[in-house]
Amino acid sequence: MLTIEAARKIAIDNGWLSLTPPSFQAAVLDRCRLQSFKTGQSIYIVGDPPGGMFGLVTGGVGISIAPGERGPYFAHLARPGTWFGEAAAILRQPRRVGLTATRDAELLYLPIEKIDEIVAKDSNAWRLFALVTVGHLEMAIGACDDLMLRDHVKRCVATVLRLGGCRNFSLPDTSPAEIDVRQDEIATLANVTRTTAGSVIRKLEAEGLIDKSYRRIRILAPDTLRAMLRD
Which of 49, 99, 120, 166 has its CA 20 to 30 A from that of 173? Predict the structure, then answer.
């Protein structure tokens, strides 16, 4: 298990908190506690009562949604630095998405009463908490835009890149991005059949752009994959 100091450093260097002032970072992290989740363990599900915020520091988390008649179903993967739960905390409404650990994961947890504490001391802190929602909105808009790609190969490629956190740019880490995802999940997210998704994944693997194993894909050449979307 990570030390709390190591977890705080990951949170400061990645994602939402990296965009906020040091004083706000300290206010958040001083009030967080570190929690561990095993592969397949639920963190919370759609409809759960409102609670605090979670920030992923190690491992992976799958996000499930149930906005209409169907669901819940898998919609996205989160990487370290991603935070969740701000909508339930702000609005005091039930959880709108579900979170499940796709591999052993460690998350920082900021209780809802601690969020109130921060805002009571600085009312402008709401603007910084709102940055989490803005990030989620940008990701959702990008996913909708990718679904409008007419070419099924491009939709699959865009989906893989989005899940790996490298849809628009490569990650600073030089090691390949890994995603915990099944072929049928890619098919659903790219709006293609499972057979079509499998054919595209095999083609990308044969060209050395990805490496596939059981429920896991390593993205070996994100720049080349993004170039495919511009052609």
Answer: 99
